[in-house]
């Protein structure tokens, strides 16, 4: 297992839940931690292997219907992610991973499939695929700038009383009710596709701060140029 | 070929006229518009044009255009071959290709992955070549397991002769239901989409080119053709050095599939291989262009598996220009950049351009690759000293560069 001093990132099931650039979230967290001199150890946990409980940040990516169902089933059986979340680990899930950490989601025939239950949300299948740029105002208590990213999903998500919406959409579909994503404590989910943290470095830093405390500033030139260009493209 | 009914003849002729007009007015190469006009007048045109010809359909996420070209070259041993050489790979492009070579008894058609079931149904093609399936333009293409499932359904119980890459689990699973399959060990370097069994979702054990599911009986079918080190081993066990003009391992895979396909058409390897060796560049890919002493080699990479292949061809000693767009044909979503391992570029002079250069810039920054951002391709070329330069671009970025050099072929 990783040493005590390093930040421990756990990428859940790259074999099932890595559809399109999801690894970007791991790479961005690694890069932003290392740029500040924080040593990082990353563990890729395949679906045939147990999920270690001692990670600091757990990342879940997107997936097609069947891998999503298999992923949920294996995570429920394994229990490692739930135990890690119970002891306060950070969880960041995108797209199918977001649905999967909820109470239930729609299977490949639209039937409800039980999720891992880390977030009080229930997802089903919408009528129309939501594909395109998304921009959203983040819940003020999180103190983050506008979310930007790309969404590509059929899902609609209802938020239960146990969670808060991560943001309110300016452009795009998100949960389908004007909100986008959800969070509770240190568990965050979003429909932003793939490398969501690349366009939202402040969100990446929030996840890091939850684990390591205050962070030194780093050079964000390239992050900011990309954010500016993308937000201008969709909000103008 | 038998005579087409009058309406189909008229539709095909008007389509050809539209294509010619499109070319003359500089709007495009006419491959799509001609077919669209034809199909508008006669919706059954593709079926009618395909009837009484022996056709091969070629589909994959990478290498379709090149393999189509290689097979076409080999089949020219037999006579005239109709083909969509410039990658217009949906039904309109197929109509154009077949109506431009009215009397060709053979046809080789590159087919977009999504359209394969429909085009197979319509044309009743005798041969289908399937090479690889990897993540590709997810906002406009279907998810790949879903695609494999569609292929599998389309091929099940059909009399089509399938030539398939046994080393790609998704492709093999899709082809397994066909009544006649020639399995080629064409290799597969990109494996990120096949760590799970397409049949049951169980973990796939992979060792070298072999693979098997740990939880169900699915395993790699036994190939009869093998790609070896710069050579192909045929079903008789004979080794044929490839010596292609096209660079890179991926093109050796394409050649292995092309040779097996040529044999399915009755062209033996000793006649097919010399034809295949003549191909130097395909629709501008791998071609070299020159400007002010800069000698630029153009490589196309549309998805993560394609970038892996482009890096394989690229010379690490040379500076490199990377250009990325995200127009509709490229996919609007640039997430895939995070599935490419750019660390191989560390230490090389790297110049970044294209409409989505900021996405690429951040991606390289995260990979600790030093680079220089250039607003245009011309700026990147000007910034470099005379000499050899490699260029990797995705689809529309590649076409823009090609256009700057007068549609280099």
Automatic annotation (TrEMBL), chain A:
Residues 9-200 form the CobB/CobQ-like glutamine amidotransferase domain. The active site is at residues 95, 193. Pathway: Cell wall biogenesis; peptidoglycan biosynthesis. Substrate binds at residue 129. Signal peptide: none annotated. Forms a heterodimer with MurT. This is Lipid II isoglutaminyl synthase (glutamine-hydrolyzing) subunit GatD. The gene is gatD.
UniProtKB/TrEMBL annotation, chain B:
The keyword Translocase does not apply. It comes from the Bacteria. Zn(2+) binds at residues 197, 200, 213, 216. The active site is at residue 333. GO terms for molecular function: acid-amino acid ligase activity; ATP binding; carbon-nitrogen ligase activity on lipid II; zinc ion binding. Belongs to the MurCDEF family. MurT subfamily. Its EC number is 6.3.5.13. Pathway: Cell wall biogenesis; peptidoglycan biosynthesis. This is Lipid II isoglutaminyl synthase (glutamine-hydrolyzing) subunit MurT. Residues 300-397 form the Lipid II isoglutaminyl synthase (glutamine-hydrolyzing) subunit MurT C-terminal domain. Forms a heterodimer with GatD. The gene is murT.
